[in-house]
Structures are given as C-alpha cells and as structure tokens.
Amino acid sequence: MVVETGHDRRRELDDLVAVARRIATAVESVIDGKADTVRLALIVLLAEGHLLIEDVPGVGKTMLAKALARSIDCSVRRIQFTPDLLPSDVTGVSAYNQETRDFEFKPGPVFANVVVGDEINRASPKAQSALLECMEERHVTVDGTTYQLQAPFMVIATQNPIEMEGTYPLPEAQRDRFTARISIGYPTAAAERQMLDTHGSSSPLDQLEPVATAPDVRNLILAVRGVLVSAQVKEYIIALAAATRSAPELRIGASPRAALQLLRASRAQAALDGRDYVIPDDIQSLAVPVLAHRVLPTAEAMVERKLPEQVVARLVAELPLPRS
To answer: Which of 61, 116, 206, 257 is positioned for an S-S bond with 53, CB 3.0–4.6 A?
Structure first.
C-alpha cells in the first residue's frame, strides 16, 4: 500500500496547474479576451463533464470548442447537427460485410476523446437523443451490443438561442447531462481589434499545436478526484440544490445529478487554484453555470422575465454559508 505524503500531493497539484496553464494559454491564443470562459471549459474537462456553449452566431462558439480539442493530442471528431441527421450518423451502424458474410460495426464520430457537436439544437430531438447514453454512461449500445468509449471523453456542444429560426430546444434530460453552460458574449473593443489583426489574414487554429496528451488529461482527472470536500461543503451543496427545488420561481429544480456535477466542478476549480480542498467560494462561483440551464422557470416567472440565472444567483446570495 502506497501512502501519499503532503509533499507528493503538493507536487501533483503543481504539475496539474502547469499542464492546465499550458492548455489555457494555447486556447487563449485563439480566443481573445475570454480568460474566464476558457477557465470554465478547463474546469468541465477536469471534472469529467460535458460543456454546452450557447450564444448568438459569430462570437466564436465553434472556435472555442475546436481550440480546446486541438490543444490536447487526442482523437477529435466533429458532428455537424442538421435537421436530417440520424442517430446512426452519431453512434455508428452495423453494415453487412460481403467477405466475412457477417455484420460489421462501423463506429460513428462519437467514438473519440473529444466530440465537437456544432449547432446541436439544429437536429431533431431523436438525433439529439443519440448522445444521452454516451454522455452519462460512457458507452454506446448498437444492435444489442455495448461498446465502451475511451477516456477521457468529453462532448463540447454549441447551440444558438432557441429563439433563432430553425432550432429545436434541447430535451430536459439532455441539458441535465451537460456539466455547465456558458455564453461567450461579444468581445471588448481591444479584443476585437486584436482579433482583426491576428485573424484577418489566417486562422490561428492552423498554428495551434497540442500542448498536452490524453494520458496527461487522465492523470489530471485522477488528481482532481483526490481533492478533499468536507462534510460541511457537501451539506452546503445539498442545501443549494434543495433551495432550487422549493424556489417559487422554478417549477423544476436541480437534480441529484446536478449536485454531483457541482461537486466535481468545485474539485476541479480548487485544483486549478492549487488547493487540495474545496471552499464555499468554489460552489458559489460555479452555481450559475452548473445549475441554471438545468432548472425550469414557472410560467409566471417567464412572464416577469425572471431568468433562471437570476434565480440561482439570488439563492446563492441568500443561502447561509456552512459553519466551519
């Protein structure tokens, strides 16, 4: 039995921070002026989760997804979601082989370490449901046979707001499988000027080289799992999830899966800060991106334009901090 000392743990966290910083620097060379967004994407990666990027067209959703995927030397597949996309186009299909006189499974694009789903809400709910099993259980079942997916496995999906023409809202079960939802937003004037200078002649994605490997990411994930979460912080997460379920503005609150994802994300954030323990500040800063897309407002709240993000932020502000 190997006992990990405090010195070994410190060195492990230092290595994690160094690798994460390299990945963040690589992504930020493509996405100008969005350090907080890049950091949240890294948190989701280290929390073994999936990322949903929702914003209007043209602000760099797909660019962010591609940059994060290319910064890691692992298998990457892209799926362009369209109204005529079929579930077999995502998971794969069994085709008859004339030579062997038997059916042979042809893996779909979901068999990759990083799957970039572009404009996921352009596809029908039937096609979207092809991702449900692989996102939660890390395997795919086709024609009664189950195929395991390689680790790490992450889905980075982009979508336009559902008010845009020709889009389908994501089912509740699908949204609940995304660890966090982020919006990139418009860049600042300085960042947009820098983008015109650097992106005007060529795409920075062409010069982006991998700065980490799939084994590196697996080691980072294992290190994040060892971050300590005290009983008081766990009770705080449970209380926050319960508060969403009883909030008068919400008809559906956060699920137990949401509380678990908030726990994992807080571990990843603590590790990126060089800490081997979670503090309430981690929970508070991640509550909105992790919980807001999972809850559903009541009809009255929608009429009064009370956004889920505002409701979750209010609950975080009102909930008492755990006692030390």
So the answer is: 61
Q: Are 238 and 5 contacting, i.e. CB atoms less than 8 angstroms apart? A: no
Higher pLDDT, 130 or 281: 281
Among 226, 254, 272, where does a domain finish? 226
CA angle 46, 239, 286 (to 5 degrees): 30
Query: pLDDT for 182-230, tens place per residue?
Result: 888 787 888 778 777 777 667 777 788 889 888 888 888 999 998 999 9
Domain range enclosing 255? 227-324
For residues 17 and 9, what is the distance between their CA atoms, to the nearest angstrom? 12
Are 249 and 209 part of one and the same domain?
no
Q: State the Cα–Cα distance between residues 196 and 260, nearest whole angstrom.
A: 41
Q: Which residue has the tokens 């449901």?
A: 129
> Do 78 and 158 sit in the same domain of this protein?
yes
Are residues 33 and 150 located together in one domain of the fold? yes
Q: Please give the model's pTM, rounded to 2 decimal places.
A: 0.88
Q: What is the CATH number of the domain that holds 71?
A: 3.40.50.300
* 49 within 8 A of 271, measured Cβ to Cβ: no
Please choose, from the candidates 288, 311, 292, the residue with its C-alpha nearest in 3D space to the C-alpha of residue 301: 311
Domain boundary among 226, 261, 289: 226
Supply the mean pLDDT for the chain: 87
Closest CA to 64 of 208, 193, 270: 208
Which pLDDT does position 46 carry in this prediction? 93
Q: Is the pLDDT of residue 142 over 70?
A: yes
